[in-house]
Amino acid sequence: MSRVRVTSTTIVYGVLLVVVVAAAVVTAGRGRNFFSTGNLDNVLTATTILGLIAIGQTLVILVGSLDLSVPYVVSLASVVGGGIMAGQAGGIVPALLVTLVVCGLVGAVNGAIVAGLHVHGFIATLGTGLVLSGYLGSTYQGSSGLAAFEWRLLDATRLGPVPMAFLLMLGCAGLAVLVLRRTRLGHHLYAVGGNSEVARMSGLRTAVPVVVAHTTCSVLSGLAGLVLLARLGVGQPTVGSQGGYDLMSIAAVVLGGTLLAGGKGNIAGTLAGVAIFAVLDNAMGVMELNPFLKDVVRGVVIVVAVAVYARRELDRRPARFDRPSAGDAPPAPPPGAATPAGTTDKTLEASR
Amino acid sequence: MSAPATTPTGEGARRATPTVPAHSGGLGRRISVGLVTPGGAVFVLVALLLVAIMLTNPNFTDPGALIRFVGRTAPIAIAAMGQFYVIVSGEFDLSMAAVIATQVVIAGNVIGLEDSRILPGLVLMLVVGAAIGLVNGLATTLLRVPSFIVTLGMMLALTGLVRYVTGGAATGNPTETFRDIGRSGIEGIPVLEILPWSVVVLAVVAAASAWLMRRPFGRTLVAAGDNPDALAHAGASLWWVKTRAFVLSSLSATLAGILLVGYAGVHPSVGAGYEFTAITAVVLGGVVLGGGRGWVLSAAAGAFALELLFLLLTALGVEATWRDTVQGLIIIAAVALAARTWSGVRRPRAAPSEPTPEPTPEPTQSTTEGDR
Amino acid sequence: MTTSSSPVLRVRGVTKAFHGNVVLRDADLDLHPGQVLGLVGENGAGKSTLMKVLAGVHSPSSGTVEVDGRPVVFGHPVQAQRAGISTVFQEFNLLGERTVAENVWLGREPRRRGLVDVATMVRDTTALLADLGVTGLDATRRVRSLSVAEQQVVEIAKATSLDARVIQMDEPTAALADHEVALLYSIIRTLTARGVAIVYVSHRLTEIFDLCDVVTVLKDGAQVATEPIAELDEARLVRLMVGRTLEAFFPDPIDGTAPGEARLELRGAGNGYVDGVDLTLRAGEIVGVAGLQGSGRTELLEAVFGVTPLTRGEMVLAGRAVRPRSPRQAVRAGLALITEDRKATGLALHQSILDNTLGVVRAVFPRRTAAARRGVPTLLATLAVSARALSQEVRLLSGGNQQKVVLARWLATDPAVVLMDEPTRGVDVGAKYAIYEVMRRLAADGRAVLMVSSELPEVIGMSDRILVMRDGRLAGELPPSSSEEDVLALATGVTTGVTAGATTGATTGTQVAS
Question: Which residues form the signal peptide (chain B) (predicted)?
Answer without folding.
Answer: none
